[in-house]
Amino acid sequence: MTERPAQRTPNRQLAALIAEAGFSNAGLARRVDQLGLEHGLDLRYDKTSVTRWLRGQQPRGTTPALIAEVFTRRLGRRLTAQDLGLDACAPVYAGLEFAAGPEEAVDIVGGLWRKDSGSHAELRKIAFTPAGLVVPSRDWLIGRADEKVARTEVPVRIPAQGRPAAPRIAVPLDPSRRRAPAERGPGQRVTGGDLAALRSVGELFRSLDDRYGGGHARQALVRYLEHELEPMLRGTYGEQTGRRLFAAAADLTRLAGWTSYDIAAHGLAQRYFVQALRLSQAAGDRAYGSYVLVTMSRQAVYLGHGREAVQLARVAQQGVGTSAPPVVQTLLHAAEARAHGLLGEVRACTASLVRAERALETARPGDEVPHWARFFDEAQLADEFGHCHRDLQQFRAAAQHAERSLQLRAPVYARSRVFCRVVLATARLGLGELDQACQLAAEAAGQAAEMRSVRAAEYVRDFERRLEPYRDAAPVRGYRDKVAALG
After folding, report:
1. Which distant-in-sequence residues (6+ apart) come within 8 Å of 162 by Cβ?
2. Which of 10, 193, 206, 281 is deepest in the core (most CB within 10 A)?
3. Cα separation of 10 and 22, whole Å?
4. Helix-, strand-, coil-residue percentages of the chain, each rounded to 5
5. What distance in Å separates the CA atoms of residue 315 and residue 219, rounded to the nearest whole number?
6. What is the reported pTM?
């Protein structure tokens, strides 16, 4: 790896942290290489590389951020490249930080939106890292809502050349300043109408995602976040409006992550989820934070990281205790059940499903349910049961619950119906009902072909892998002919 020309000043900050962490030079180099592999980077550092860093040489590219993350994991507190006496960079690890305050949170998530809305294809290729789940979930669990989110004056950055960033100067707003109605810029006051618009935008993009897949309008959502939401967050607002604004920002950022997850941009999705979690803390919305953790748990299940998925679901439960509405409690327990199902842990999975079922039974028609949890009904719970029983190879129960979910599930949840239909097909296959299994899967494949959803396509491919032992059977040949006709 090419280094910058050596500097004469020894890096005492890095030396002190190496001593505190108890690393040898070789041990630090090895950990940096290992972390690089998590991000698809083939690094070849050794103890000599670390010696050069201690003498003042600066590693290039993403390495300063990777070194900082190695120390963050070891010492249990967030450290930046600057804390190590290294030059900052634009790291692939950016976006997994759990910001210290609301303003930093806006800086981090705003940077993600801007990069994602441009032609930064590499951002969508960043790898998912299970280890990147630990610090954010821990910081959320032990953290509390920010004391102050209101903005009544605009911080102005004074640019510096060749020097550290200059301090921010608070400049009172000029109330006489006016912008054209179509424009919005930093400093403009956020209104109740703005908040209502954010809610409507969320409902619109959620509906598009449910019907047509995450790839259909994801870029439009990200551009909206960059051009409309970020200026609001940098505008002016009081405490109550600010909390509601951060709540809307958390919801839309989670949705951007969800659509990214659906197109298999898993590292990017992970970063959106982490930032949504931090924004929910600024909003003071503990229940929504638990929902974000459940979303992260579901992604971990999809990617095969069952143990991490269990821990995320349990952190979510611990974070809200028994104060959340019954529907939210149901959602949390169902997420844990899915993780146990992936791991083949029958007793733990069954216990979580029972808790989820009992929680939903306590829900009453007049209960106040957060808007983001209203999708979780009997149809969704039956779907969760179906997935769990499929993973546990309890195919008769899986078929019963999948059929019930399809009977109850509204057509607007088109992608979820595809998933459930494939679960039902898999259960029928497991029961030896090859004809029916292939018929169900062909229907699902046709529906998936109309969507821009990598997950929907992957559900179909998973079923096709299970067909391999029967590849010469007539129903399987018929199924493949139907799928081939879809183009």
Report:
1. none
2. 281
3. 19
4. 65, 0, 30
5. 31
6. 0.80
What single DSSP character describes residue 154?
E
Cα 158 to Cα 60: distance, rounded to the nearest angstrom: 27
Specify whether the CB–CB gap between 149 and 243 falls below 8 A. Answer: yes
At position 424, the amino acid (one-letter code) is L
Q: Is 432 left (phi over 0), alpha (psi -120 to 50) or beta?
A: left
Task: Provide the pLDDT confidence category of residue 126 given band limits of 50, 70 and 90.
Answer: confident
Q: How big is the chain by its Cα radius of gyration, in Å?
A: 25
CA 359 – CA 366 distance, rounded (Å): 15
**What angle (nearest 5°) sits at the alpha carbon of residue 244, between those of residues 274 and 185?**
85
Question: What's the rounded Cα separation, in Å, for the pair 133 and 110?
Answer: 20
3-state DSSP call for residue 96?
coil
Q: What does the block give as tokens for 311? A: 């821990």
174: Cβ–Cβ under 8 A, 6 or more apart, which residues?
A: none
φ, ψ of residue 88 to 5 degrees: the values are -75, 160
Report pLDDT digits (tens) over 296-341.
Answer: 999 999 999 999 999 999 999 999 998 899 999 999 999 999 999 9
List the alpha helices (DSSP H) in 98-142: 102-117, 134-142
| Interatomic CA distance for residues 209 and 172, integer angstroms | 41
Which residue type occupies 105?
A
CB 277 within 8 A of CB 247: no
Res. 350: pLDDT tops 50:
yes
- Which 3 state secondary structure label does DSSP give 356? helix
Structural contact between residues 232 and 194, judged by C-beta atoms closer than 8 angstroms: yes
Which tokens sit at 231?
């200026």
What residues does each domain of the chain span?
12-91, 99-157+189-284, 409-487
Give yes or no for a contact between 208 and 258, defined as CB atoms under 8 angstroms apart: no
Whole-number Å distance between alpha carbons of 459 and 464: 9
As a whole number of angstroms, the distance between CA 273 and CA 371 comes to 18
In the numeric block, which tokens belong to residue 28?
A: 């630090």
Q: Report the run of H or E that residue 155 belongs to, with start and end.
A: strand 153-156
